[in-house]
Structure formats: structure tokens, C-alpha cells
From TrEMBL:
Main function: Catalyzes the cleavage of L-kynurenine (L-Kyn) and L-3-hydroxykynurenine (L-3OHKyn) into anthranilic acid (AA) and 3-hydroxyanthranilic acid (3-OHAA), respectively.
UniProt modified residues of type N6-(pyridoxal phosphate)lysine: 232
Keywords: Hydrolase, Pyridine nucleotide biosynthesis, Pyridoxal phosphate
Name of the protein: Kynureninase
InterPro entries the UniProt entry points to: Kynureninase (IPR010111), PyrdxlP-dep_Trfase (IPR015424), PyrdxlP-dep_Trfase_major (IPR015421), PyrdxlP-dep_Trfase_small (IPR015422)
Organism: Lacicoccus qingdaonensis
GO molecular-function term, one example from the UniProt record: kynureninase activity
Length: 421
């Protein structure tokens, strides 16, 4: 394994965005490889929370419109910071709610079924919460059997042609992941959107595992809507407020879940009982924004706009290329399956490894200072994050993993997931 250490150190010397590593709290003797579940705290995120707390302390209720970052406009301000990550106009991007609430809000608003066109197309590999929300919308419309699921040929990935093959005149709306949360496959959002629109279908994407890891061009691709969380690659902290994009051609529609923060801001405090919808994405807000859960994003997002998504993506691919190279060379005898697609156009920011003792392997890695995560039924996800992981982190992770496989140390741990995995 020593030759890989020399290679890692050489890669790190050439790393153009390594300076951002010092912005994060990394922990001692820890190789954190779970940024696709919860990103690390940055010093800037910490400071922005302290700044907002200080506004509360010193301004009290005047913080809604006073101070450097008035709370009344914070959802829109943070939306503007995220707009560059998806290459969209800031009037079409918002920080609000949770991902699941935003799925309810967008799907309930944009799904307008007719007798002949009433299906919603999803996929069988998507995160469960997306499916729960879509099913709830269909149930409420009296169309409980109108969910259409794209099937996987191998249980891990989806074929673009298989999804397009299901697009017909019975489909009203499509919701798909941009990156599959298990395998890390990137879907061809541009091609899928073009095919959907040829059939008159509204299409949206869940960006939870893609935003902050890969570049997006949602307005260029003509995507109708997108939702995402901010606590994974965007490092917004546990429970940080989610993101939302809706194409402006849909802003004239009346939002399904109405609340006072979706009202036009100029008339909001007139307190009329008639809803006066904001003209732009702001109408998708519902209740009072969660200021303290947005505060970390004020600092965290500045790192992305400085480093640039192209640089982040390039390093991310190089990190996972390096990991795959070591896995191919050093792990042939351990009956491990690398599930993640190899091609750069199809690979997100993490690698999924299958093994019958995956839960035990995951526990053994954590015991030795490597933090990945486990995904049922038998997979370990490893996510080296470009802003704070190094190639030497990848080397040490692989070195420790090989030691665990050689000694079968995973047998010392229960091969079952914890309550949270």
C-alpha cells in the first residue's frame, strides 16, 4: 500500500482548492468520509450562526428588518447564494421548508391531472420520503394507483432509455433523483427533461445528493422544478433549511400549500384574509422561516462561490478515481462489489461498496477512525468531499479497510445496522 501513499501526497501537492480544508472542523485522527450524509461544520458557518444569534440578542424583534441580514428576506437571500450552484436566476430559487415539504408543495402545485393524463412517474431506487410524498398527493387526488415506477435492470442503476420509454400521454409529472442515493449514479437530467417536454410532461429532480457535488444548469436544461436538502454536500448543519427551484413559467399557478410568508411582502402585514401571492419563487414559502436553521448557510455557501463548482467537481472525480484505482488493485480477493458507475458523466460524489458483512465493516471502520455509512441491505458508502478531504484521507481509508478485510475484524461487530445508518 505504500506506493499509494506517495501518489496521494503528490496529488495533494497539486490540489488547487486544498486551502479550503482549513475552513472546517475535521476532528483529530479522523478520516471523515460521510459528507454525503452530513457535511462538516465550517468556521464560516459557525460564525454566521453567532452573527444571527447576536442580532437576536441585540436587536430583538427589530432583527426582522434591521441589521446586516434582515430575517424577513433571509430565505430569498440564501436562495440567491444557491442560484449559482444550479445556474438559475435568483428570483427562481429559495431556501425554505424541508425537502419533503418542498416535494409536497411543488408536486401538489404542478400536478394537475386530467382523466387521461394522471400518472406520476418515479423510480424504484429513489429515497423513500420522495415516494411517500408523491403517494400522498396521488391519494389526495383520488388516484392512489397512478404511481408509475421506472425499474432498475441491476438493482443499482437506471437506464435513461428505460425511463424515457415510460413517458407517454398518461404521465402528468415526473420526479426523479439527480444522483441515486445508494449507487451514486448521475442521471442525464438534460436528456430526460427534453424527452419529458416532447411529451408535454412536467419534470423535476431531487438534488439532495448532487447539489454541491456536481454542477447543474437547470434553466439551460429547462427543468420545471427541483428540491434539495442543504446538510449534505452544502454543509448547512443537521436540519438546515432546504432549497427549492421552480421555473418562472409556473409562477402564475396558485401554490397548493398557502401560508403567510408566501404572500407578497408589501401586503403581508396588511393581514388580509385573501392570499396575495408573491410574484416569484417566494410564494412557495409557507410559515415563518426557520432563521436559526438557515443561519449556517450564510457562511457555508460562501465557500462554494469562492472555490467554484467546476473545481469542486474536478477534485471530487479525482478523489473517487483514486479510490477506485486502489480498490481495483488491492481488494480483488475480498469478494467486494463496487456498485457505483465508473464513467465520470455517471458518477456522483460517493462510492458504494457491497459485501455480505457490510454492516460489520462499517462498524469496524468507525472503530478505527474512518467515518463512512451503511446502506441496507449490504453496502458501505464512502464519500470523499472535495472541500475538506485529501487524497491522503482516501489512502488511509483504503489502508484501514484493507487491514479490516485481511484480519476479518468485521466479524467482531454485529452485522446489522444501528437505529440510524
Amino acid at each position: 500500500m505504500e506506493k499509494w501513499l506517495e501518489a496521494a501526497q503528490e496529488y495533494d501537492r497539486k490540489d488547487t482548492i486544498q486551502k479550503y480544508r482549513q475552513e472546517f472542523y475535521l476532528g483529530e485522527n479522523i478520516h471523515y468520509m460521510d459528507g454525503n450524509s452530513l457535511g462538516l461544520m465550517s468556521r464560516r458557518a459557525e460564525q454566521s450562526v453567532l452573527d444571527v444569534l447576536n442580532d437576536w440578542k441585540t436587536l430583538a424583534i427589530e432583527g426582522w428588518t434591521g441589521g446586516e441580514r434582515p430575517w424577513f428576506y433571509m430565505s430569498e437571500e440564501i436562495g440567491g447564494y444557491m442560484a449559482s450552484l444550479i445556474n438559475a436566476d435568483k428570483e427562481n430559487v429559495l431556501a425554505t421548508n424541508s425537502t419533503t415539504t418542498n416535494i409536497h408543495q411543488t408536486v401538489r402545485t404542478l400536478y394537475q391531472p386530467t382523466e387521461s393524463r394522471n400518472k406520476i412517474l418515479v423510480d424504484e431506487l429513489n429515497f423513500p420520503s420522495d415516494i411517500y410524498a408523491v403517494q400522498a398527493v396521488l391519494d389526495d387526488h383520488g388516484n392512489p394507483d397512478s404511481m408509475l415506477k421506472a425499474k432498475s435492470r441491476d438493482g443499482h442503476t437506471l437506464k435513461t432509455e428505460d425511463i424515457i420509454g415510460l413517458m407517454d400521454e398518461s404521465v402528468a409529472l415526473i420526479l426523479l433523483p439527480a444522483v441515486l442515493y445508494r449507487s451514486g449514479q448521475v442521471l442525464d437530467m438534460e436528456k430526460l427533461t427534453e424527452a419529458a417536454h416532447e411529451k408535454g410532461i412536467i419534470i423535476g429532480f431531487d438534488l439532495c445528493h448532487s447539489i454541491g457535488a456536481i454542477p447543474h444548469h437547470l434553466e439551460e436544461w429547462d427543468v420545471d422544478f427541483a428540491v434539495w436538502c442543504t446538510y449534505k454536500h452544502l454543509n448547512g448543519g443537521p436540519g438546515s433549511v432546504a432549497g427549492l427551484y421552480v421555473h418562472p413559467r409556473h409562477h402564475h399557478l396558485g401554490v397548493s400549500l398557502k401560508g403567510w410568508f408566501g404572500n407578497d411582502k408589501e401586503s403581508q402585514f396588511d393581514m388580509n384574509h385573501e392570499f396575495d401571492a408573491a410574484a416569484d419563487i417566494s410564494q412557495y414559502q409557507i410559515g415563518t422561516p426557520h432563521i436559526l436553521s438557515m443561519a449556517p448557510l450564510l457562511g457555508a455557501l460562501s465557500l462554494f462561490n469562492e472555490a467554484g463548482m467546476d473545481e469542486i467537481r474536478n477534485k471530487s472525480l479525482n478523489l473517487t478515481d483514486f479510490m477506485l484505482e486502489i480498490l481495483d488493485a488491492e481488494f480483488k480477493e475480498y469478494d467486494m462489489e463496487v456498485v457505483t458507475p465508473r464513467g465520470h458523466e455517471e458518477r456522483g460524489g460517493h462510492i458504494l461498496i457491497g459485501h455480505k458483512h457490510a454492516a460489520g465493516i462499517n462498524a469496524a471502520l468507525k472503530a478505527k477512525g474512518v467515518i463512512p455509512d451503511f446502506r441496507a441491505p449490504s453496502y458501505v458508502r464512502i464519500a470523499p468531499v472535495a472541500l475538506y478531504n485529501t487524497f491522503e484521507d482516501v489512502y488511509h481509508t483504503m489502508k484501514i479497510l484493507k487491514e479490516i478485510m485481511e484480519t476479518k475484524e468485521y466479524e467482531d461487530f454485529d452485522n446489522k445496522r444501528g437505529v440510524i445508518a
